[in-house]
Design goal:
The protein has a 5-stranded mixed β-sheet with strand order 3-2-1-4-8, sandwiched between helices. Strands 11-10-9-12-13 form a 5-stranded mixed β-sheet, with helices on both faces. The protein is 30% helix and 25% strand. With 357 residues, the chain is α/β, with parallel strands linked by helices. The longest helix has 28 residues. The protein has one domain.
């Protein structure tokens, strides 16, 4: 830790995690001083799709925070299509999964697997926050991996899910090694409009940094240390379409927030409880369909280890019904374990580790 970082810890450092869904933007904020969290607060802004630019009230709020605190770091969860995660690293692994490595930014996790996102998605996120700036862009796979390694690691292939409001991600991990990853949308794409005139997205290959936040307490390998200079801005990892499951790419997705389950519906006047239940039921059917299809791909595609999976661990940042749990247990014959999580809160913690590691 450099002298500047040591001195910086004496001041108030504000970390803001930004999570967008189709109908709202949630900011989770943590203030760090002298190595301790002194304040935590949350702010929610309603959104009106399609989202072509940040609402002025949201922008002004972030700017006011930047004026109020000496050091402010804004982290954004990338929840759009055009990202993914694969086993292996480098050109050969990406080629095997039919991902054009020239058109994506990728990071290496534990020197074993890669998360990636297209330069178009990265540019879109930057444009959205062009007035306030972004310090970190996080891949949902990075968040999921952090949840996984914070538990007792499994020494057999195990299915993990990170469930969020507008998407969920699925990954098969064996200890820290990812064998398979998939991203699925559970909402329409109308909330996020990616303009065709994204400026020179090809040139984003030269961007200073999507940091590998997954290398947390682990000692960096020599290869990873050589890349630290590129990772200064630390726009953390991105994800993408599945590893090239053509039939699923149009439906991939990931994560969101905490116990505001179905908040975008419950906060709306005139919406009946049965309508909320029906909405959740329809979403659960979609989750089950995508999960079943992804597991079939994992079992039948020779690219993957394809060992039988009898356990699924769900990190639930939104809401999952008991009906879906029973369906997974009865029809897929899998043991289901659920952990309620707060994705935005974990994002703040990861960003803090990145800055003060």
């Amino acid at each position: 830790m450099g002298i500047r970082t040591v001195l910086q810890k004496k001041f108030q450092n504000l970390f803001v995690a930004v999570v967008l869904s189709e109908t709202e933007c949630v900011l989770r904020c943590k203030v760090l001083k002298d190595g301790a969290i002194t304040k935590t607060f949350t702010k929610t802004f309603a959104l009106t799709p399609p989202l072509e630019a940040l609402d002025s009230s949201l922008e002004n709020y972030l700017m006011n925070l930047q004026d109020e605190y000496q050091f402010v770091y804004i982290a954004f969860l990338l929840g759009s299509l055009g990202q993914g995660a694969i086993s292996g690293t480098g050109n050969a692994s990406f080629g095997k999964h039919n991902v054009d490595i020239q058109n994506v930014h990728n990071v290496t996790l534990y020197n074993q697997w890669s998360a990636y996102a297209s330069y178009i998605e990265i540019k879109w996120a930057k444009n959205l926050f062009s007035e306030v700036g972004l310090d970190f862009i996080y891949s949902p796979f990075i968040i999921l991996s952090d949840f996984v390694v914070s538990q007792k690691l499994k020494n057999k292939p195990t299915c993990y899910i990170l469930n969020c409001q507008d998407f969920f991600i699925l990954a098969v991990f064996e200890e820290r090694q990812l064998h398979f990853g998939a991203f699925f949308k559970t909402q329409t794409d109308t909330a996020f409009t990616h303009s065709d005139d994204v400026n020179d997205w090809e040139n984003e290959q030269e961007e200073e940094g999507i940091l590998d936040s997954e290398e947390m307490p682990e000692a960096a390998t020599e290869e990873e240390e050589e890349h630290e200079g590129i990772e200064e801005l630390s726009e953390l990892t991105e994800l993408g379409d599945l590893e090239d499951i053509d039939d699923l790419r149009s439906t991939d997705s990931f994560s969101d927030i905490d116990t505001r389950a179905m908040g975008s519906f419950r906060g709306m006047e005139g919406v009946k409880e049965e309508d909320i239940s029906l909405e959740l039921y329809g979403r659960d059917l979609l989750v089950y369909k995508y999960l079943k299809t992804a597991l079939e791909e994992y079992y039948h595609n020779p690219l993957y280890v394809s060992e039988f999976i009898d356990e699924i661990i769900i990190f639930d940042g939104y809401e999952i019904s008991s009906d879906l749990i029973h369906q997974l247990e009865d029809e897929l014959m899998m043991d289901v374990e659920i952990h309620k999580v707060d994705v935005s809160d974990r994002m703040c913690d990861i960003a803090i580790k990145e800055v003060f590691k």
